[in-house]
Structures are given as C-alpha cells and as structure tokens.
C-alpha cells in the first residue's frame, strides 16, 4: 500500500526570535515494514545538519540565527507499507532493551502523589485495561486547560495543579508507568 504524506508544521511567535534550534525527526526510515520511495524536507533558510539518532532515525538539526517570527517546515513523500500479515521480522532498532524507557527525567519524575495515583488504578493482572483506565482517570483529574502550565513544568508540578495540556498529560502518564516499572516513552508520528 502506498501512503502519500504531506505534513506542515508552522511555529508562530508573538515577538521576533533572534535564534532557534529545532531537532526534526520528520524523515521516516526504510525497514522491513515500510520503504520510502520519495521524501523531501522543505526547511527555512538556515543551517540544517542531518545525522542519525540512537534509534536509527534520521535527525535534522535546524539552526536559525536570523531574526524571525515564524518557522515553516514541510515534510512530504511516498511510503510503501507492507501488507498485513507479511512476515517482516524484527528490526535491529526494535530490539533495544525496554529498560532504557524506565529512566526518569526531570520532567517525568514521579513524586509521592503521582506514585499513589498510579498504584490506585493499576492492576498487574489486567495491564492494558488498567493502564487505559489510569489514563482516563488522569484526564478526569487533570482537565485540558491551555495556559495552566509552562513548557518547563514537571509532571509533579502539573499533577499538583490538577490541570494542564497534552504535554503535561504525557509527562504524568510516563511518570506513572515508570513508577510502576513499566517501560514507557513518548512517540509522535503517524500510525496506520
């Protein structure tokens, strides 16, 4: 199956920004399950360096050192996806130890209240169902509230406020999972 992707990201700033760095993981990689037949990144004028991250993903580091109020990035191309049921085997990058995803970060550290919340809703004998329930309860406890938090606020900060945005929900859920010794990470992208 062929997927045609045209993805546009636009950042707008209220005031002029003099310098910015963007880490872009917008280029899919070919694997047993997918083959990239065409791919283009359209970036603003600046310095973009391509490299590969620890998981084998193409990473572009875009540095803009001229004043700007907007950044527009377009990723487009064609991806061939293997049919359901095709035996493709595991990719080497998929064999990375899940223990890597138990590591806390300053933004995803679980404090006492987060640990208690996670333990209240988690049932090891029904892992998937109870994690879905935990997330649903988290959204009830922390309603989506734009402007309630700042980008540098931790999971504990947002949980204590009992409101936040998508980033806060993600940080708290990661903190809950890791406190329960369930490997978890944040992944953004398309799922077909």
End-to-end C-alpha gap: 11 Å
Q: Write the H/E string, N to C.
A: EEEEEEHHHH
Q: Helix proportion of residues, in percent?
A: 10-25%
Mean pLDDT: 90
Backbone structural class: alpha+beta
The largest sheet, given as strand count, sense and whether it forms a barrel, is: 3 strands, antiparallel
Task: Note the total helix count.
Answer: 4
Sheet-strand content, in percent, reads 25-35%
Computed over alpha carbons, the radius of gyration is 20 Å
Return residue spans where pLDDT drops below 50 for at least 5 consecutive residues.
Answer: none
Strand order, largest beta sheet: 1-6-3
The count of strands amounts to 6
Whole-number count of domains: 2
How does this model look, in words?
- With 192 residues, this protein is of the alpha+beta class.
- It contains four helices and six strands; from the N terminus they run E-E-E-E-E-E-H-H-H-H.
- Helix content is 24%, strand content 31%.
- The protein folds into two domains: 2-83, no CATH class; 100-179, no CATH class.
- The strands form two sheets. A three-stranded antiparallel β-sheet has the order 1-6-3, with no helix packed on it. The protein has a three-stranded antiparallel β-sheet with strand order 2-5-4, with no helix packed on it.
Question: Any descriptors?
Answer:
alpha+beta; 4 helices; single chain; 3-stranded antiparallel sheet
What secondary-structure arrangement, pairings included, does this model have?
Layout: E1 2-17, E2 20-27, E3 34-42, E4 47-52, E5 58-64, E6 68-81, H1 112-121, H2 127-141, H3 155-161, H4 166-179
Antiparallel strand pairs: 1-6, 2-5, 3-6, 4-5
Helix pairs in contact: 1-4, 2-4, 3-4
Pfam families: Bact_transglu_N, Transglut_core
Domain Transglutaminase-like: 123-191
InterPro entries: Bac_transglu_N (IPR013589), Papain-like_cys_pep_sf (IPR038765), Transglutaminase-like (IPR002931)
């Amino acid at each position: 199956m062929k997927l045609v992707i045209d993805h546009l990201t636009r950042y707008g700033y209220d005031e002029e920004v003099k310098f910015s760095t963007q880490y872009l993981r917008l280029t899919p990689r070919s694997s047993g399950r997918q083959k990239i037949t065409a791919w283009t990144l359209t970036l603003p004028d600046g310095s973009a360096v391509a490299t590969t991250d620890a998981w084998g993903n193409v990473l572009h580091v875009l540095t803009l050192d001229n004043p700007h109020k907007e950044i527009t990035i377009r990723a487009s191309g064609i991806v061939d996806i293997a049919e359901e049921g095709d035996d493709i085997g595991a990719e080497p990058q998929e064999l990375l130890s899940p223990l890597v995803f138990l590591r806390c970060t300053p933004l995803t550290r679980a404090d006492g209240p987060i640990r208690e919340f996670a333990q209240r809703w988690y049932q090891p004998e029904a892992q998937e169902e109870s994690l879905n329930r935990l997330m649903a309860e988290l959204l009830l406890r922390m309603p989506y509230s734009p402007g309630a938090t700042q980008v540098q606020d931790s999971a504990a900060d947002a949980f204590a406020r009992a409101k936040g945005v998508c980033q806060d929900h993600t940080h708290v859920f990661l903190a809950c999972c890791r406190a329960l010794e369930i490997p978890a990470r944040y992944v953004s992208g398309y799922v077909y």
